[in-house]
Amino acid sequence: MDKQKRLGILTSGGDCPGLNAVIRAIVNHATLTYHWQVLGIPYATQGLLERKAMPLEMHGMDLRGIDPLLSMGGTILGSINKGDTLAKVDEIVEGYHALGLDALIGIGGDGSIAILNHLAIQGNWQFIAVPKTIDNDIALTERVIGFDTAVNTVIDAMTRLTFTASSHDRIMIVEVMGREAGHLALHAGIAGGADVILIPEISYSVVEVCQHLAELRDRWGRKFAIILIAEGAHPSNDAGEPMAQPRPACGMGQYLADEILRCSAYPVDVRVSVLGHTQRGGIPSALDRLTAAAFGKTAVDLVAQGQSQQMVAWQCGGVVAVPLQEAIAQSPLLVSPQGQLVQTARGMGIYIGQMRD
Ligand code: F6P
To answer: Shortest CA distance to 22 belongs to which of 80, 95, 76, 82?
Structure first.
């Protein structure tokens, strides 16, 4: 009788909603369709290094018949987003073989899947990647796990903050995640009704922000405003070039608040809300669950077909496999300043920084 195939799963990098839903989809499909044994590797490369694995079974976490994995945020496998273990590359690579794995599916962001791909090549692993990140900056895929939920979390916060801002005639600055890529701020800003969206890819002028706020007030009678700023957004100098300054310790939201208070032509009341890790937590949205099911199922099928160094991706309405190396080479995928969503924001009368050639 053939030896039962042993499939490993790990989650790597910053967590996000939907990781457990991917794990569930992989376990269910691998068990039901292929009758494989599935092992969860705790804390990504740390687990490989320490030769740790836990059996994952269909309905393994059922509570009175309810499978919590579908709706649970975070990851039951734990994750790491530091490269501490990488000093011991050979031992990590060998961990795959020591655990008797025949294949590994890694759910990670661009940094994690690049590291795992490198290890997979070195160790001759059969490896498939599933893209996840609230930053939405992985190339060759129109969807990643976690982004949709994070966008909805930010929109929910904006809705709440809009009411309190309007009650007190305040400028509310909402700082969201995104050190290099502004997809989260851009999507949530348009969908949540921001007046100003500031992203790392397009530098902004404090003077122009203040002019925009004055116009909202003087022309449209708006006494409050919502500014959505990504943590990696930066102001420009007088020549319109991004200012080469380190990220202020107080955070970009507070920095901007201080600058608005300094530059505004009329008295303003400004408050800052830093949404921080609330954006990474929470119950996955319907879209993230659906994508998790489709990605998990396809990742298992790719393993069954003997494929390796592929990433599952969403393109033109369905799941496809793309060469992992190509996805890594083109990531992080930044917001295009000429792109449709930036033009949409401008068309909606949102200030989104300056475009100077
Ligand atoms: O990469 C995703 C991300 O959410 C970034 O947007 C953010 O800057 C970072 O993770 C924060 O990570 P942590 O606090 O977990 O190190």
So the answer is: 76
